[in-house]
Amino acid sequence: MKFNPKKDISPKYLFLALSIICILLLVLSLFSNSFLERVKGVFGKVFTPMQEGVSSVGEWVEDRFLVFGDVKELRKENDELKKRNRELEDQLARNQAELTELSELRQLYSLDQMYPDYHTTAARIFSVENSGWFNEFYINKGMNDGVYQDCNVLYDGGLLGIVVESYADYSRVRAIVDDRSKVTAAIGPNSALCTVEGSLTNYKNGYLLATDIDKDAKVNVGDSVITSTVSDRFLYGLTIGYVTELIPDPNNLTVTAKIRMAVDFNDVRDVLVITDRKQEVTY
Fold first, then answer.
1. Most buried residue among 5, 65, 130, 208 by CB atoms closer than 10 A?
2. Other C-beta atoms within 10 Å of 71: how many?
3. In the predicted model, is pLDDT for residue 181 greater than 60?
4. Which of 112, 127, 115, 123 is nearest to 146 (CA)?
């Protein structure tokens, strides 16, 4: 016969049994503390590990929430530091640009002081021809600023080039290293005449050539080369470069000199334009 607790045990009997057990435990606790302690011990062995486990889990969860909070705070601080770092980098870049511009302006001022007899205006290069070299380029000054064709252009230590085309607010400049450039110059202490020939190939090798120097002229290595009084388009006394080597010509009548340029044509930004011209042009 199958036992069915729901049908075979009446609720009133179950209640009666539990009541008797409770009364017995109460009586026993009155007369026997040791028995009560054993009961407590049993319950302690069963429930204490469970309590410790629950407590450990609670502490672990709490620690994780604290770590998560710390991570969020650290990420926030990290984002703020990155933002501040970018701001400082931008500020540093602006400061460096301003220092570079200040240095260039000081150079232009020093260059202007070298030629006090001429009227000048500063200009900035805004475009370079496709060659990538500063043999032809455009500046942001034109006829509205008194810059016309044949105005001489200075940079760094001396003559950079000449304006070949001028418009209302910009101009095109051809540097003296360009293959089409020829400058009548004076060389040495006696101002012997010569022709400084533009050549990108030679300039890339570190020099330009000054040709047709009289073999009897007293020219030495280290002598300066300047624009001559007889030049038709270049004003007198502008520094071109310095003699580094003298080469006798096959005709035994003239000498050719290698010249180290006074200007570095590799990275030009701001220039000084002489608004006075050798020959005034009527427009």
1. 208
2. 10
3. yes
4. 123
